[in-house]
Amino acid sequence: MGSQASPTPGVLRLPNEILCAIFTLRAKADSENISPNAGICSIRSSCRRFCDLSTHLIVRRDTVVDYSRPDTLIRLQTVLGNPLLVAGIKEVNVRLHFYHPWVAESFENFTASVLSEWKQKRSSWWVPECRTQGEVAFRAVIYDFFGDLLKDIKSAPKRQRQQGRHSDPVEEVYLTTKAGPSRKVILEAYNVYKKMFESQRLFDNGLFETTLAETLSKMPNLRALTLHDRDLYHNHDPDRRMDEVENDVEAQENRLFKLFSRPMIWEDARWIRPRSKIWPGVPINLLTTIPIAIGNRPGIIVDNLSIQVTAAPDYTLLDVDPVRLGQLTAAVKAMEVFQFAFQPRCRSSCGPWEVDYHGLPEYEDRKPDEWRRINQFLGAIVAAGCFYGVEICLDEFWFSIGVDSIGDLHSLGADFPWPVASELASVTLSQVSLSSSELVVVANGLLASGEMRLQEVRLREGTWRDALDTLRQGMQSPRRVYIAYPLGGGTFRMDHELKDFAFGREVSTWQLSRAERFVGGEDIPNPLIPLGN
C-alpha cells in the first residue's frame, strides 16, 4: 500500500482574503518595531503565494509627486504596471515648490534674484557664525562669497570702460574671464535652474494636473492627498548647517551651487525682488486646479485632503471666480473628502528678511482683498458638505505671510457660510480671527453630538463674555466646545485670576473649564459676568 500524501497545512487552505487580513495585521504590528518590515519579509520568503499576497505591504504607504520635477510623476506612472505595488500606495504628497519663469528667463534675472534673496538674509544675521574644530559655518561661507561677488560688481563698470563695453555690470562680472570663483558657481547654478525650468514647463497649461489625476485614478487604495511646498517633516532653512571643513573649497562651492539652483517655495517669493516680476510667477492657482482635475476624474476617493503650502506673496492673484469656486465645491464633493485640513506651514527662515536701523524686521501690509479671497476659497471647499472633520490652523501662517501681528486683520479662517444639516462632527480652529456671530455660524454647522475646538482664536468684534452667551443660546442643542487661550474680545482687560477662573482646567483630571461647561448647556452662570468682561 502506497504512502498517503501529507495533508495541506491548515493555513494554506485559508482563502486569500483571510490571509491578506492576517498579513495586514502583522504589518501593522511590525510598524511599531525598529525593523518595520521584518515580519513581512519573513512571510514573503515562505512561498510564492505568500509573497504575492504580501508584496503591497512592503511598499511605502506614501509617495511624493514634485511639481518642479515632472519626472517624479512619470516614474510613479511606471509603478502602475504592477498592481501589487500600486495597492500599497495610500498617500500622495504633491510638492508645489517651483522654478520661476522670470528667474529662468535670463542669466541676468537669475543673478538679480540670488543677490536679492541673500543680501536681504545677510542683513538679518548681524554677524556670521564662528568657525570651530576645523568646520566652516555656512553663514561664514555666504559672507565670503557675496563679499567677493559685490566687490566684482562694483568694479565691473571700471573694467567695462577700459574694455570699451557697455553691457550690464552684473552680467559683465560673470562673462569676463577675470571674474573670481563666484562666476563658476553662479553660472553652473543658472544652467541647472534653466534646465529644470524647461522640464517643468513641459507640463504647463493644465497638463500636470490632468496627468496627476489620471495617475491617481489608477490607485485603488488611495486615501490621503497633501499639497505642500516646504519639506513636510521639518522647517529647517536650506542653509541651516554646513559640515564641510574650512579648507575644502570645492565642497563649499558645491553646497552653494545646490542652494542657488534649488526651486522656490511660495513664502520666499514674497521677499525676492523685483516683486512685480516675481509675485505673478507663483503657481497659486494650483490650489484650485489640482482638486478640480482630480474631482473631474471618476472613481478617485480622498478621505483626507490637507493643504500645507507656505503663504503666497499675493492672494489677489487667486482665481475666485464664482464658476471656478463652484467647480471646486463639486470636485471636493466628488472626491468624498472625509477630513479637510488647511494648515499653511512656514520655514524657520521665512521673511521678512530685511531689517531697519534698529535691527527690527521691516513688515509690510497685506491687502484686505487677500483675506476675502482666502475665505472664499475655504468656503468653496467647506460648502461641499461631505466632511466629518474640518481643521483650519493658521498658527504658522501668520509668520509665513510676513505681518507683525494678527491684531488688526480682518476675519480670516471661518468667515464664510458653513453648511447646515451636514455630517460635520468636528471643527478645530487655531489662531483664526473672527467675530462672535461668525463663531455661532460655525457651531450651528455641527451635528448635535459634534465638538468644536478653539485654540488661540482671536475675537475681533464683541467680547468673550457675550460670545459665551451667544454660543450657549445660539446652538441648537448642547455640544462639546473646547476653548484654550482665547485672544481679543476683552481678554487684555482680564487679570490672570479671571482668565484662570473662566478658562482654566484642572490639569490632573482635565475637566472642562467653567466657560466650556457653560457653553455646553450646564446650569451654571457665565463665568465672565461677575467682572463685566
Write the layout of secondary structure elements.
Layout lengths: L15 H15 L7 H7 L3 H7 L7 E5 L3 H10 L3 H4 L4 E5 L5 H5 L1 H17 L14 H26 L5 H7 L6 H20 L5 H10 L7 E5 L20 H12 L5 H4 L5 H4 L7 H10 L8 E4 L14 H13 L4 E4 L25 H15 L6 E5 L3 H4 L25 E5 L2 E2 L1 H9 L6 E5 L2 E2 L4 H11 L5 E5 L2 E2 L7 H8 L10 H6 L14
Parallel strand pairs: 1-2, 2-3, 3-4, 4-5, 5-6, 6-7, 7-9, 8-10, 9-11, 10-12
Features:
about 525 residues; alpha/beta; three-stranded parallel β-sheet
Folded structure, characterized:
This protein is α/β, with parallel strands linked by helices and 533 residues long. It has three domains: 49 residues; 95 residues, no CATH class; 304 residues, no CATH class. Helix content is 42%, strand content 9%. It contains 22 helices and twelve strands. The strands form two sheets. A nine-stranded parallel sheet has the order 1-2-3-4-5-6-7-9-11.
Largest sheet: 9 strands, parallel
Number of helices: 22
The assigned structural class equals: alpha/beta
Tell me the span between the first and last alpha carbons.
98 Å
**Unreliable parts:** 126-131, 159-179
- Domain count: 3
How do the strands of the widest beta sheet line up side by side?
Answer: 1-2-3-4-5-6-7-9-11
In helices, the fraction of residues equals: 40-55%
Give a count of the beta strands, DSSP E runs of length 2 or more.
Answer: 12
Radius of gyration: 28 Å
Quote the beta fraction. 5-15%
Q: Per the principal axes of the C-alpha atoms, what is the gross shape? A: globular
Give the integer mean of the pLDDT values: 82
